[in-house]
Amino acid sequence: MALDLETRQQLIETVRRFVEEVCVPNEQLVSESNAIPEAIVQQMRELGLFGLSISEEYGGLGLTMEEEALVILEMGHTSPAFRSTFGTNVGIGSQGIVMFGNSDQRQDWLPKLASGEVIASFALTEPDSGSDAGSAKTKAVKDGNHYVLNGTKRFITNADKAHIFTVMARTDPNTPGAKGLSAFIVERSTQGVVIGKPEKKMGQQGANVCDVTFEDARVPITNRLGEEGEGMKVAMSVLDRGRLHISSLSVGISERLVQEMTRYASERKQFGKPIIEHQLVMGMIADSYAESAAGRAMVMDAVKKYDAKEKVTLLAAATKMWCTEMVGRVADRAVQVFGGSGYIADYAVERFYRDVRILRLYEGTTQIQQMVIGRELQRMAKAGEI
Ligand code: COS
User: Fold this and answer.
1) Which residues line ligand 1 (CB under 6 A)?
2) How many domains would you assign to the chain?
3) Which range marks the domain in which residue 60 is found?
4) Which CA distances in Å does 134 have to 5, 96, 165, 233?
């Protein structure tokens, strides 16, 4: 149920203070140490950030998508690694259980996910199956009361910390595409689950991605999410929602970058006046502000429709495409406004420039969003809806 407006405002202000007072002063430390200090993770637990999207019945805050987006917009005002710490519990790691779990599965996991005691990751991508998610090769072969999993998942966010994984694996070897996949909750403690070393990445230090390999990992039948063959439906439903979450994050970061460039350009003087008064610089800042504001409006429209139970596949893809591309342009302009200083690691814009690059790649590349948009529009045209 939606929060009343006063409670909602209080929540947003609490998150804003947390970002300003705790996260922003620690950005450099997180970047250099490649870890979020445990004391900060504990504060996230106490604030309820791990349980934003999990209903109150299971100990979460039970926010609507609109409320979640407002919180994530605030979290975007600092390094995205902070958001990533709890992001998989709020989004792609938990939502398979929220949307498709039976009552036992929900009871077993949602309270621990909401409190942050347990971390969940989403395991869809594989070495040979990225954008073509339906081609996943990880096998799940039924054997008595278990499925035996074999295969490798790649670039799995938070895998190093995760206790459970939502894994998409092929239960029907005779059906090659999306229809042969099923979804499972796999516990990290299962024998045969091997977590690889964290990858060295371009940005977002403090949030790790690793391979997860299954070597004859026996997963109880009771851990299957939904029916056999519903794995792609689980993954895509989770991703429709995840794409709105990533859009909110992108807009939040663009707002921070507009703030950074405006402040810098108001202080920095060249040719006898603050550089913001030079029209070519002013233009970069104005374009960034306008594009960021457009992103915010798009996110707000999409999340309200999501909460109204409208199908948002088309809008979520369009919003993700716009917001992630937009923040890429804004980050590029921020570096440009900072000039040579923007290339120096002492300035936050250098770090954000690297951090935002992944947003156009994960949870569906821009080209996949274009494909989803194109297909949806074509479907609507065939159905006479457009
Ligand atoms: N919501 C619910 N179910 C959906 C869905 C959606 N938005 N989109 C697809 N499905 C389900 C449907 O059940 C569909 O079956 P039907 O044909 O019976 O309806 C099934 O999934 C297969 O859909 P589709 O035929 O569209 O699958 P494709 O193999 O053509 O793949 C794309 C579609 C490309 C859109 C998909 O593979 C994709 O999103 N790829 C990107 C993957 C990604 O985001 N990876 C990031 C990993 S997380 S960091």
Assistant:
1) 122, 124-125, 131-134, 177-178, 232-233, 236-237, 239-240, 313, 362-364, 368, 371-372
2) 3
3) 5-115
4) 42, 17, 18, 10
